[in-house]
Each structure stands twice: as C-alpha cells, then as structure tokens.
Amino acid sequence: MKDLYYKMLRIRRTEEEIAKRYGEQQMRCPVHLSIGQEAAAVGVATHLSEKDFMVSTHRAHAHYLAKGGRLTGLISELYGKADGCAKGQGGSMHLVDWKAGFAGSTSIVGGTIPVGVGLAFASQLKRQPQITAICIGDAALEEGVFHESANFASLHKLPVLFVSENNLYSCYTHLKDRQPARPLTDIAHGHGMRHLTLDGNDCFAIAAELKPLLTSLRQGEGPIFLELQTYRHLEHCGPNNDDHLGYRPTAELQTWRAQDPLLITRKQMENKGLWSAAFEKEMEDKVFSEVQEAFHHALNSPFPEPSELGAYIYANH
Amino acid sequence: MRIISFVEALREGTDQLLAADDSVFLIGEGVPDPKSIFGTTADLKSRHPTRVFDMPISENGLTGVAIGAALGGMRPVIVHQRMDFTLYALDQVINNAAKWFSMFGGQKSVPMVVRMIIGRGWGQGNQHSQNLEALYAHVPGLKVVVPASAHAAKGLLVSAVRDPNPVIFIEHRWLHGTTSDVAPELYTVPIGKARVAHAGRDLTIVTWSYPTLEVMKAVEFLETQGVGAEVLDMQTIRPMDMPAIKESVRKTGRLLVVNDAWKFGGLAGEVLASVSEDETLTLKARPQRLTYPDFPSPSTHGLTKNYYNGPREIVEAVGRVLGKKLDLGAVTDYQATRTHDVPDQNFKGPF
Ligand SMILES: Cc1ncc(C[n+]2csc(CCOP(=O)(O)OP(=O)(O)O)c2C)c(N)n1
Ligand SMILES: [Mg+2]
Predict the structure, then answer these.
(1) For the segment A71-128, what is each residue's pLDDT rounded down to a tens digit?
(2) Residues B255 and B327 occupy one common structural domain
(3) CA–CA distance, A254 with A252 (Å, rounded to integer)
C-alpha cells in the first residue's frame, strides 16, 4: 500500500513541478498532464513486471513513470535534452523506456492501440507469458482502429489489457456529445471481450481486482477491457487550470476534485492505521528530493549535438 | 482598407458561406468548443445551430460521412486541427472523394472541403508538424489550395466551397495570426492561379503558404544588394499554375523554389521538372530548391533551429542560384533577433 501511495505521489509532485516551471518556457513542447488520473496508471502497473509491455497516448507521463520509466529520462525529454528518454527527438508526447517495458507513447489518438495488440501477438507467437497494457482515453474508442484492433485481439485471445481512462472529455467535448448513451464496456462486450468498470481513482481496488485477471491473461484466456472512471484536474493541454472556460460544470469539478486519488488512498491508509504524520513527511521529502534532482539534472544536461539532427531515419542493422 | 487576421478572415468567410447557402455545413473535432479551432469557428455554432457540428474523434469515418453528404447534395467543410490526423482518412479522401466522379463516368462529383492545419515549432515533433501536401497534391481528382494571407484564406475558402470537386485546404498554423486587407463581402480568389507577390528581373522565387512570408522578408535583404527577385505565391498547388511560373522564368532565366516540406518526392521537384522539361525555356543557371531536410522535425528546440529555413537561408540559396556570394551579415543579424520556434513573441505554447 505504501509503495502505491509513494508512486502516485511521485507522479503528482513531478507533474506539479512541470506545471510550475512550464511558464519559464524551457520545456518547449505541448504537455498533457495526468494530475487527477494517477491512480489508474499506478493501479494498472502494480502487477505488471518490466517484461510486460505498456503503450500509451499523448497523456503518458503517469503511465511511463508507473511502469518504471526513468524520471530523469522524462524530465530531460521535456527540456529537449540529449539524455531524455527519446534523446529529445520526442518531447512529452513521445515517451519510451524499453528497459521498463514502456514501448512508446504517441500523439495520434488511437495510434498505439494496434501496436500494443501487435506486441501481444508477438508474445503469443513466441510463447512468452507477457501482457501488453494499452492505455487509452475515452475518445480513442471512437477511432475505427480501436475496433479493428479489439476484434483481432479477441479473435486470437491475445494477452492484452485495454485500459480506457474515461475522464469524460476529449479536449473540451463531453462524452455525451461524442458517443451514444451506453456504457463503454458494451463496446468491449460487442467484441467478445471480458470487461469491467472500476473507480479509476481507487488505486488499491484497481490493483487488487486486476491481480487475478492478469494471471488469467497470462494463461491465454483472452483480452480484457477495463474502464477506469476518472477525471483530469487541469486543462487538456498545458500547465493551467481552465475552469474559467466553463465547459465543465462547477458541481462536476467539485465532485471529482473531492475524489482526488491521493485523498482516497490516504483515507484508506488511515482506516487501516497505516498513515502517520511521519510517514507523510517521509514520502514528501523523498519525492521532493527525487523531483528536484531530476529537474536539476535536466537543466544541466546538454542539448543533443547538432549531428543528432536527422540521425535516426534508418537503422543500419 | 480593413485589416483583419487570417483567423478572422476564415471565420468570417465560413460564417458568410453558411449564411448564403443552406447546403453548406461545418464539422470537426472542437468546432464549437471554447478554443474553436484556433478561433476560426468562434460563435459559428450559435449563429448557425443546425449546420455547425462537433464530431467524434473519428477522422476516417466522418470524412466518409462528409463524402456521402456531399453526394447527397450538401457542401460539407470538415476541419482537422492537424494535417497529421487526416492520415486516418486517407482511404476516404483518395479512394472515394477523389474517385467518385471518375469511376462512375462523371455522373456526380464530391463538393467537399477538407481544412487541414500544419503545425510547426514549440516541440510539435514528428506527428504534429508534417506538411504532407505532396501526398494530397499527387492525387488526380483533388484540388489543393495553400493560402499565404488573410485575403487569400477567405477568397480561396469561398472558391473551395463553391467548387464541385473535393478541395484540400491547407492552412499553416503560423499564418493564423498574420493580417492583411480583407474585403467584408463574399469574394473569391480563383483556384489554380498564382499571384506575383513581388516583381523582379534577376530570378524567380516560387513559393506558397507560410514560407511566402519568409521569402518576402528575404527580398528586403536582396534589394539592398541590388538583387531583384520575382516572387510567385502559388496559392494553389494542384492544379499548379505552371504558365505563371514559366512566364516569370522566361523573363528571369533563374529559378529557386522555397518549400516547407521534404525535398524527396515533393512539389519543389515538380516545379523544377516542369520548367526543365520545357524546351521553349532557356535557363541561365541551374534551378534550385530550398526545402526541409529529408527527415521529420524533432521535438527539441535544441535541434529545430537547424531544421527550418528562414530569410538567411533563402538569401544564401539565392546566392547559389545567381552564382554570387551575397552578403549575409544583415540578414543573419535580423534572424538572430527572432525566436526560431514561435511565430511571434506573444506565442507561449503549447500548440
Ligand atoms: C487522430 C487524432 N485526432 C485528434 C487529435 C487531437 N487530440 C489530441 S488529444 C485529444 C483528446 C483525446 O481524448 P481522450 O482519448 O479521451 O484522452 P484524454 O485527452 O481525455 O486523456 C484529441 C482529440 C489527435 N491527437 N489525433
Ligand atoms: Mg478523455
């Protein structure tokens, strides 16, 4: 439990620091923050090992970190530095850490869905008991490529965990203006997949529910679609709060902010007697120094050499 | 004179088209949202509530739906915040929109406009900065327009909506904030016609879309050195106004194409080939291209500064065409005053 809290806190404080420093205009790339959605990433990654794969979207910081991606690799990437996880070529929307099994996040909605299915296809062909988690939002289900990929994953009983973080919005457009009124899981049902919906802000519950399901995935019982209901606290893209735009009702904002994943977890730990002021301080201190160190490191890292421009067009072997 | 921005010109043109013709409708991801496609669709939903739509994140399917609606008598305008997102819709655009007229023997065409925005700078990276104009311009049956000013944006939009064929309307994000004199009424800028942006006798510079601005800046530095460049802003890249290019080259005997797109298989090469093939033209120097290098734009601003071409690189390229060493001092100083990855100093990201 403590470990999950630590992981969520580390993501939260990292992204808060990104938001705080974004205005300095040194991180010159679009950033989509996951603040409010940390429990989903951490809960899903809990019972995955670095041998398992994960792919993600434009909003990938939390997934990358939860899966074990290097923190310095993330921050340096945002600053466009040579030691970023994609050597500065990618920026916030293109994170990768193969050592951690994080196979890549990209900026085209739905773009990594079939890629994740393909990773799982390779695992199946090679008889390796790996799972691929495909992290998507709610809007990705509107892309045809989701349906083609889900169909194939289901047909071949591939070890895929589709994770749809339903935060109700695509940019400024509510789900009800994009999809008919029916549960997202009905779509999974239509593709013959097992499916479940969970509170996306309850990290412990997600991890606990997934544990046996992940085992069944490894045993070849076919893909699972998981809807995690959650909410993004800040603007779609960028470091700010955009409540003033009025596209999200005040009551909705209040309800969801009250269900902050960190608060929920803290309450659960309090109930179990696992919380103390000393624990809180220990976590905050530890995370603070890690985050500061990562920023310090990134700021002092060099940009890629000019010769890196155009250096990665074709592989040679 | 009425000076308005490219964004406002597009918004006004769309508003007037919707008002003038009941068959016009507008659809796209975020059209009625608070950001309203960089402002280009602001208030249009409230002004035309039954014909302005948000859309699911379904570029492929909805492009096909727009094609069907066009065949059914409507005139859809579908808009994408990045050209990169339209790749999902390539099948519908190329196999259906561009073919419905030809494959059924000319019975019904697809009067549809697809607006596509090209990103640049601020770390847009591999998947948010591509200029894939050559992909679309390659396809018979499509027309492709590339306005470089607010005036052209409105006039070409009107022509595109009234055209009986599918028209790809490419707008550069860095033009959105630029301003020019725009007539308040509905007017057209003809598809397929280039515009002489600057007259000169020493060489012809062919360009379109955003780099037109950079070329015009370079012209200032060329003039101080006595070099007279004739600048053609093509405005449409399919059909390309080859007669205008040839007429200018006949006069100058020298040609440079400045194109913000990859060189290999790109349209700059198409211009060079057409000019070179023409036996009635005699060139005084080898024609040249100034393009993006042949690889994707990286995200880091540490590298993008050597990716994009500015007035300095243009003056340098003109020197190559003229076989002359031009003085780069002043233009280099000028370029150093600009931040290379933002359109203007007010731009603070993120898109
Ligand atoms: C193919 C494509 N279409 C549109 C976009 C623009 N876009 C970027 S993020 C986004 C919202 C996606 O919403 P969702 O999948 O729910 O993820 P969330 O942002 O809520 O995490 C959109 C439409 C894109 N990047 N790619
Ligand atoms: Mg969403």
Answers:
(1) 999 999 999 999 999 999 999 999 999 999 999 999 999 999 999 999 999 999 999 9
(2) yes
(3) 5
Task: Please give the residue of chain B at the shortest CA–CA distance from A302.
Answer: B302
Q: CATH no. for residue B116?
A: 3.40.50.970
Contact A313 B295 (CB under 8 A): yes
Catalytic residue from among B8, B59, B133, B214:
B59
ipTM of the complex as predicted: 0.95
Helix (H) or strand (E) segment spanning residue A199: strand A194-199
Could you tell me if B301 and B118 are in contact, meaning their C-beta atoms sit under 8 angstroms apart?
no
Query: Any idea how long chain A is?
Result: 317
The stretches of chain A forming alpha helices (DSSP H) are: 2-22, 38-45, 61-66, 71-78, 113-125, 144-155, 184-190, 203-218, 250-258, 261-271, 277-300
Instruction: Specify whether B140 is located in the same domain as B205.
Output: no
pTM (two decimals): 0.97
Write down the residue that tokens 């509905």 correspond to: B186
Evaluate the omega torsion of the peptide bond into residue B350 and state whether it is cis, within 30 degrees of 0: yes
Ligand 1 site residues, Cβ closer than 6 angstroms: A 58-59, 107-109, 137-140, 167, 169-171, 236; B 29, 57, 59, 81, 85, 88
Measured CA distances, B15 to A45, B44, B116 (Å): 49, 6, 18
List the domain range (segments joined by +) for residue B259: 195-336
- A137 alpha carbon, closest ligand: 1
| A25 DSSP 8-state letter | S
Domain A2-300 has CATH 3.40.50.970: yes
Are B231 and B150 contained in the same domain?
no
Domain ranges of chain A: 2-300
Structural domain count, chain B: 2
